[in-house]
Amino acid sequence: MKKILSMLTLSILIIASCDNSLDNPEFNSNINNRSDQDAYDQLVTALDDDQIISDNFYLRSAEVVDSVLHVTVSYSGGCREHSFELVWPEAIIMIFPPQFNVILLHDSNNDLCEAAITETLIFELSENGLGLSKDVFSLMKLGIINGSNPDEIVNVNE
Questions:
Q1: What is the distance between the alpha carbons of residues 133 and 42, in angstroms, rounded to a whole number?
Q2: Does domain 19-156 have CATH number 1.10.1220?
Q3: Backbone φ and ψ of 3, nearest 5°
Q4: Peptide bond before 25: cis, by omega within 30 degrees of 0?
Q5: Which of 84, 94, 105, 121: CA 20 to 30 A from 32?
């Protein structure tokens, strides 16, 4: 009986250590947004060579509101802070409307918990150094490439 009670207590502690809610509004990842052509080119090459450059996550949706990019992602975790980085090319195709892809990377910080987290990442586009106006952001054709699965691309404004 003591063994069963001990196992039950241990199970409750393990379950309580991670928040298993699908959408946890209190969980916010560390977010970085950078424009770096060399890093972007290296990431594209790595993705073309089928190298793993990011921890696993799923792109759910993306939209630009004013000059803010909202990207909804899902991933497992819940016990450690996760980091996301959006890497932009410095050169974009300057046709109208502007068209280009960015790469979203995820670092789970070795979080082995299994809660299903869904969160919306917020990226200030005016801070990326591309010099595009708010009006252009609302018209641009932007593809977000999943760094853990380059076949998964979410297109914004299409």
A1: 28
A2: no
A3: -65, -40
A4: no
A5: 94
